[in-house]
Amino acid sequence: MIEETPKQKGLPASCRIHVGTSGYAYAEWTDAGFYPAGTKSGQMLPLYAKQFSITELNYTWYRMPVPETIERQRQQAGSGFLFTAKLIRTLTHEIDPMKWQKEALRYREGMSPLLQSKQLLAVLIQLPPSFARTQGNRTHLSVLLDSLEGLPLAVEFRHRSWAVDRVFDELERRRVCLVSVDEPDLPGLFPALDVVTCPDLFYVRFHGRNDRGWRSGNMQKQFDYFYSDDQLREWIEKRIIPMSSRAGKGVIFFNNHVRGQAAGNALQLRRLLSKEGLEVG
Amino acid sequence: MRSRSIIHLNVADFAVAVERQADCRLRNRPVIVAPEAAARAEVYDMSEEAYQDGVRKGMPLKKALRFCSGARILPPHPDRYEQAMMECFKRVLPYSPLAEMTDQKGHIFVDVTGSGRLFGPPPDIAWRIRRAFRSEMGLDPIWSVASNKLVAKVATRLVKPSGEYIVREGEEAHFLQPLPLYLVPGILPEERKQFGEFNLSFVGQAAGLTLEQLDLIFGRRGQTLFNLVRGVDLSPVQSFSLKKKGICFEHLFGTDTGQVAVVEGVLYCLAEKIGSFLRKQRLSAKNLGLILDFSDGKRIARQAAARPPVHDDLSLFSVAKLALKRAWTRRVRIRHISLSCNHFESRSSQLELFAGSRAEKEKKEQLMSALDQVRQRFGSGSLRTGRTFSLDAA
Q1: DSSP assignment of B191-220, as one string?
Q2: Which residue of B has its CA nearest to A259?
Q3: pLDDT 10s digits, A155-212
Q4: Which of A44, A196, A265, B360 has its CA 20 to 30 A from that of B183?
Q5: Residue B240 lies in a domain
Q6: pLDDT by residue for chain B (394 residues), tens digit each?
Q7: How far apart, in Å, are the Cα atoms of A234 and each of A15, A227, A247, B348?
Q8: Rounded CA separation B390/B386 (Å)
Q9: Distance from CA of A217 to the nearest CA of B (A)
Q10: Do the Cβ atoms of B123 and A63 come within 8 Å?
Q11: Residue B241 placed within a domain
C-alpha cells in the first residue's frame, strides 16, 4: 500500500512541527538515562539541544528572566534552537495590582535576547485553574495582552469557562495563540480542542492524564504519566493534522516530566509524526 | 561529587515582620526594634522604610531616631522570634531533613538534592515553601536556589527586600562577577579594606587574582578567599536534630551596668531558664558557659564545671556565679550577658547513700517541682526570688 504524502492529505507542506519538553533541567532525567551520569544542570541544555529543536522555559514562571542569563542559554543551545517561555507568575497567579505592569516591562526586557535573535516562538501565558471567566479576570487578561503586545503570545486556560467562541474570536482578532491541552478528564478543566486562533502557530501541551495525582498539590504525582502510542496517534489524527493545516508552524510540549517520561514521549511523538509524513523540526 | 540544590529562605527584617504579624497597625510605617528607654540602646532590627531612611542594625537608637524620627520603637521579643523561627522550620522539614537555621533572624537553608523525585524541581519546592509561609504565617520570604549555601545566600541578598533568584550550577562565578565584595558572606570588613587598597571592590576583580597573589596579601586566608570569590562552598547544610546540642539564654542590658546586684539578678534569671529547660528534659548540666560583652566592645568568655551535674536553680546559679567571677575581671560596664549549657547528662535516678544528703536533695527537688508547677500554670513571672527584684529598681 502506498502511503499518502502530506499534500495528498490536504496539509500545507510548510507547517513545520517542533516537539520538545516543558523544561529540560531535571536532575532525575540523569537517573532516567536521558542525560549521561554526572551531568550538571548547567550542562544540560547543549545535550538536550542535540535531541530536540525546541524547549519551553519554565523557570521564567518562578523567576523574572534576566537578559544575561537568557543570552547565555541562547548561546549554549545554538542559533538554530527555538524557545518558548512561560510568563512570570506575578502576572498570572500572584497578581499585585500596583506592581504587575512594571513586571510586564521587566519580563519583556528579560526576553529581549531571544526576541532579537528571532528564537522566541511564543510567550506562554498559563492561567491558574481558579482563573474563571469573570468580568474582573476578562479585564485583567485583556489589559495583560495589551501590555505584552509585540511579543508572540499563547494563552493556556485551565478553567472550562473560557472554552467559548467569543474568547476564541477575540484571540483570533489579536493573533494570540490558544493552547490546546491534554490533561485528565476531570470536571472543570479546559477541554482538549483543535482550535487555531493564530495562523502563525499552533501550540499543544501534554500534561499527562494522572487523574489521581492531578489535584494532589505535588508535581511528582500530577505529572507522572506516560502516553501510549495509541493515545498519541489519536491526538495526531484528531487534532494535530487538522491544526497543522491551519497554521504555519506548530509546537508541541510534554510536561509529564517525572522520571524523564516527557522526553520519552516527545521522541515517540516525533517518530509518529514523521510516519504520518508531517514535517518535524 | 553529585551536584547539590540548596534553597535559601530569608524573611527580610525578621523581627519587624514578626511584630507586624502581632500588630497589623505596624504595617506600611517605619518600625525600629530596640530596647526601650535605654540610655545606650542599639537598633536590633528595622523595617525597610526605616532602612531607606538610613537606619542600620547596631546603630545607637538616638542616632537612628535622628534619621527616622517618625519610627515606632518596639522592644525586642527574642522568645517571639524564636517561636516564629520554629514555625517556619516546621514548614520546611516535610521537604527535607537537611534543613539548617543559622540564627533566629529568618534565615533557613534547605538541601533538596535528594527531594526532587518526591516533590519536584527545587524552584517549585522553594515556591511551595514560600506559599506556605505566606498563607499560614503571613511572612513573605525571599528565596533562592543554588548549588551551595554561599551562592544561595548572595542571591537572596541581591534581591532583598523581596523576590527570588535561581543560580544554575556552573554559573556561580559568572553570577558573582559583577557584584560588590560586601555582598559575599565570609569576606571580613578588614579584608574588604585590603582589597580596596588594591582598588578592587567587585568580586570579578578579586577573582582575577591568583591563589599565590591572595596568599601574599591575606596569608592563610588566601585559599578561603580564593574559593569565596569563585562561588565555591563545600560546607554541608547541617541536618536538624530534635535533640538539642546546647541551650543558651541571653540578656541585653538596656543601660550598660556595673552593678553587681543587677548583673547577679539577671544571671539568676538566666540560670532559672536553663534549670527549667533541664528539668523538663530530665537532664542535668555538666558545665555552664558565660559570655560578657562590655561597653567598649570587648568580650570575655569563661566556663565553670558542675560536679556533680546539677539541674536545680540554686545549684545552677552557684556554678554560673563562679563563671561570672572568672569572666568579670574588668572595671568596665557590661552590655550583654549570655549563659549557655552545652554538656548534659541524663538525670540519675540513683538515690543518695546517706540519709542527710538524701533529705536535702529531696527537699530541693520538691521545691523546684513546686516552682515549676506554679510557673507553668500562672506564668514565669508569678513566682520570683528576692534576688531578681533588683532588676525592677534598675
Answers
A1: HHHHHHHTT--BHHHHTTS-HHHHHHHHGG
A2: B117
A3: 999 999 999 999 999 999 999 999 999 999 888 899 999 999 999 999 999 999 998 8
A4: A44
A5: no
A6: 568 899 999 999 999 999 998 888 888 889 999 876 666 678 888 999 999 999 998 888 888 889 988 889 888 887 788 889 989 999 999 999 899 987 778 899 999 998 888 898 999 999 999 999 999 999 999 999 999 999 999 999 998 888 899 998 888 988 999 999 999 999 988 999 999 999 999 999 999 999 999 999 999 899 999 999 999 998 888 776 544 567 889 888 888 888 999 999 999 999 999 998 888 888 889 999 999 988 877 788 899 999 888 888 989 999 999 999 999 998 888 988 999 998 888 776 566 667 777 777 788 888 888 888 888 888 777 888 887 776 765 5
A7: 19, 11, 20, 74
A8: 8
A9: 9
A10: yes
A11: no
User: Is residue A41 within 8 angstroms of chain B, CB to CB?
Assistant: yes
What is the least distance, in Å, from the CA of A102 to any CA of chain B?
14
- Mutate: best of A21, A62, A73, partner B, most B CBs <10 A: A62
CATH number where B111 lies: 3.30.70.270
Overall domain count for chain B? 3
Q: Which residues in chain B have their CB less than 8 angstroms from residue A106's CB?
A: none
Name which of B116, B170, B171 is nearest A28 (Cβ-Cβ): B116
Max CA distance (Å), chain B: 75
Residue B174 and residue B214 share a domain: yes
Domain boundary among B169, B188, B210: B169
CB contact under 8 A, A28 and B164: no
Q: How far apart are CA B313 and CA B311, in angstroms?
A: 7
Query: Domains in chain A and their CATH numbers?
Result: 16-280 (3.20.20.410)
Interface test with A, best of B95, B169, B175, B177 (most A CBs within 10 A): B169
pLDDT band at residue A10 using 50, 70 and 90 as cut-offs: very low
**Any CB–CB contact under 8 A between A14 and chain B?**
no
Task: Mark whether B190 and B285 lie in a shared domain.
Answer: no
Lookup: cell for A14: 510548510
Mind telling me how many Å the CA of B1 is from chain A's nearest CA? Answer: 8
Compute the Cα dihedral for B340, B343, B348, B352 and give only its sign.
negative
Min Cα separation B289/chain A (Å):
45
Q: Which helix (H) or strand (E) holds A267?
A: helix A261-275
Q: How far apart are CA A28 and CA B124, in angstroms?
A: 14
C-alpha cell at A234: 489519536
For chain B, list residues whose CB is within 8 angstroms of any CB belonging to chain A: 3, 5, 113, 116-121, 123-124, 126-127, 163-166, 168-171, 174
Residue B349 sits in which domain range?
A: 247-393
A219/B121 touch (CB, cutoff 8 Å), yes or no = yes
Whether residues A27 and B113 touch (CB distance < 8 A) is answered with: yes
Say yes or no: B144 and B223 in one domain. no
Domain with residue B368: its CATH number is 3.30.1490.100
Position B110 in a domain? yes
Single out the residue of B265, B337, B349, B257 nearest to residue B311, CA to CA.
Answer: B349
Would you state the pLDDT for residue A1?
Answer: 44
pLDDT in tens, B56-80: 988 888 888 899 888 898 888 877 8
Is B288 among the domain residues?
Answer: yes
Minimal Cα–Cα distance from B120 to chain A, Å?
Answer: 5
Closest in B119, B126, B170 to A218, CB measured? B119
Q: What is the pLDDT of residues B272-288, one digit of tens each?
A: 999 988 888 888 899 99
Beta-carbon contacts of B243 under 8 Å, excluding residues fewer than 6 positions away, are: none
